[in-house]
Amino acid sequence: MKAAQITRYGTPDVLRIEDVDRPVPGPGEILVSVTASSVNGHDVLVRSGAVKIMTGRRFPIGVGLDFAGVVAAAGSEVAGPEVGDQVWGMVHPRERHTVAGAAEYVVVAADRVSAAPAGVSPVEAASLVVAGATALIGLRDTLRLGPGERVLVRGAAGGVGTAAVQLARAMGGEVTALARENHAGAIRELGAAEVVDYRTTSADQLGEFDAIFDTVGTELSHFRRRLSPRGRMVTIGLSGPTIAAIAASSVHGSRRIRAFSANPGTALLHDVADYVTSGALLPVVDSVYALTDIASAHRAFERGGAMGKHVIDISL
Q1: pLDDT tens, 125-178?
Q2: Ranges for all domains in the chain classified under CATH 3.90.180.10
Q3: What percent of the chain has pLDDT above 70?
Q4: Residue 231: enclosing H or E segment and its boundaries?
Q5: Are 273 and 291 in contact (CB under 8 A)?
């Protein structure tokens, strides 16, 4: 089978499509015939070596955090899903994988997948695995967003941002989105009450919010000042300055900044699928690439400016 791998850390040019042995599921694991995978920030961090404290220096390393596909085989001690089921899921983000989601087949623990949502294609499903799970954990479980609350979404045109806009609206939030002006119309259609161009509007010019969902990771102290007295803020854009801002917010009273790890299991993926099936969460796909062109997908991700996700269609 074919799999996207790296044999050294670096730019997208280090990505290679290799012929490798098809993996065999062990106890509690399933083998998934992958139809599609998407490009996530985690994939870029793995490829660049930014998280080599987790991935180490043993190569090759597989690329691709998420996937949508069909169960091809199951190991022992697996009660479900069954062979032939359409599923979606993700490999463990804090482990090194020789073969990951951007491959023709991947082996994962059965408790890391759920039934794929009905009514969307595998390419569309793949665009929502990490994005939907991250947004749901951030909004529902970390921010505990309630009906009628004002919520600001930074980076609203990205994969996680488009999901956050939709889920915040589904939870009854009044959504203000920060994004480029050329994406404003599409983001309003996703549920934002207001779209503000971050290139022409500073944090100090914004109003007050009960919750802020940040995907950018910069200027956190400035945006924290836009929180109401009982407001709260979450970020997924972790870096040295981000960690410092989080630490400072925990020392200086209310309006704390929080971070979290999106590492969903079956139950949370099932919850995301329910939002998709109900129509509350729609896929937003910017572009689709063949597995052999995964380097171009990584370059597009790093350029930024997309509306939604870059997806790898394994069937192309």
Answers
A1: 999 999 999 999 999 999 999 999 999 999 999 999 999 999 999 999 999 999
A2: 2-127+284-313
A3: 93
A4: strand 227-235
A5: no
- Tell me the CA distances in angstroms from 101 to 24, 129, 168, 303, one per residue in order: 15, 12, 28, 22
Q: How far is the C-alpha of 293 from the C-alpha of 121, rounded, in Å?
A: 20
Q: HSE of 116 in the Cβ direction (CA atoms, 13 Å)?
A: 29
Which superfamily is assigned to 2-127+284-313 in CATH? Medium-chain alcohol dehydrogenases, catalytic domain (3.90.180.10)
CA 172 to chain centre: 22
Residue 255 CA: distances (Å) to CA of 151, 164, 197, 214, 245: 14, 20, 24, 14, 12
Indicate the fold that domain 130-259 takes in CATH. Rossmann fold (3.40.50)
Asked if 284 contacts 162 with a C-beta cutoff of 8 angstroms, the reply is yes
Taking the C-alpha atoms of residue 110 and residue 102, their distance in angstroms, rounded to an integer, is 18
